[in-house]
């Protein structure tokens, strides 16, 4: 008789623990995946497995996106990328009020770049079309410099950005 009572207590404790784990698992599911009503243990476990698979897929997509951004980024600050930052490059990005010009070069001087920007400004009919707002230069490893030029401009078109990037690449060569 004593064994039966002990067995009942052990089984009751096991069922209570399973119930608590079931409730805990169910509470971790997003609201959209929580089954209406009580829901069976199997239903909750299927939803949890489905949610985990979706999250694994999302993590993989985010990792791929991060890797793509790293590959497309023209400068990576880690010291293992010395070869990547050994040549000159120009990237022109549009920003809210104009353009951001990123120049990676082996020389500090920006006179040719600023001269080219002045020529472009002089070519425009309207003098207020483009203004250099700020220039920040940073010396990186192996004597490479990173220049960030913020240019305010009223009319920015895709072709204008490509034309500017092409002209600045020629200017730093």
From TrEMBL:
GO cellular component labels: RNA polymerase II transcription regulator complex
Keyword Transcription found: yes
InterPro entries documented for this protein: bHLH_dom, HLH_DNA-bd_sf, MASH1/Ascl1a-like
Domain BHLH: from-to ranges: 2-55
Subcellular location: Nucleus
Domain of life, source organism: Eukaryota
Lineage, top ranks: Eukaryota, Viridiplantae, Streptophyta, Embryophyta, Tracheophyta
Keyword field contains Transcription regulation: yes
Keyword annotations of the record: Coiled coil, Nucleus, Transcription, Transcription regulation
Chief place of localization: nucleus
PROSITE patterns recorded: BHLH
GO molecular function: DNA-binding transcription factor activity, RNA polymerase II-specific; protein dimerization activity; RNA polymerase II transcription regulatory region sequence-specific DNA binding
Coiled coil: 45-72
Database matches in Pfam families: HLH
Name used for this protein in its record: BHLH domain-containing protein
């Amino acid at each position: 008789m004593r064994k039966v009572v002990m067995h009942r207590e052990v089984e009751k404790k096991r069922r209570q623990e399973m119930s608590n784990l079931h409730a805990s698992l169910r509470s971790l599911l997003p609201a959209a995946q929580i089954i209406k009503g009580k829901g069976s243990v199997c239903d909750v476990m299927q939803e949890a497995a489905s949610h985990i698979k979706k999250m694994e897929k999302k993590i993989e997509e985010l990792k791929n996106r991060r890797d793509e951004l790293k590959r497309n980024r023209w400068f990576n600050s880690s010291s293992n990328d010395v070869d990547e930052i050994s040549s000159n490059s120009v990237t022109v990005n549009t920003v809210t009020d104009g353009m951001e010009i990123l120049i990676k070069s082996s020389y500090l001087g920006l006179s040719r770049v600023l001269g080219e920007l002045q020529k472009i400004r002089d070519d425009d009919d309207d003098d207020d079309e483009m203004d250099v707002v700020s220039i920040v230069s940073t010396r990186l490893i192996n004597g490479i410099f990173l220049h960030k030029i913020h240019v305010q401009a009223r009319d920015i078109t895709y072709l204008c950005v490509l034309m500017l990037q092409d002209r600045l690449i020629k200017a730093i060569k």
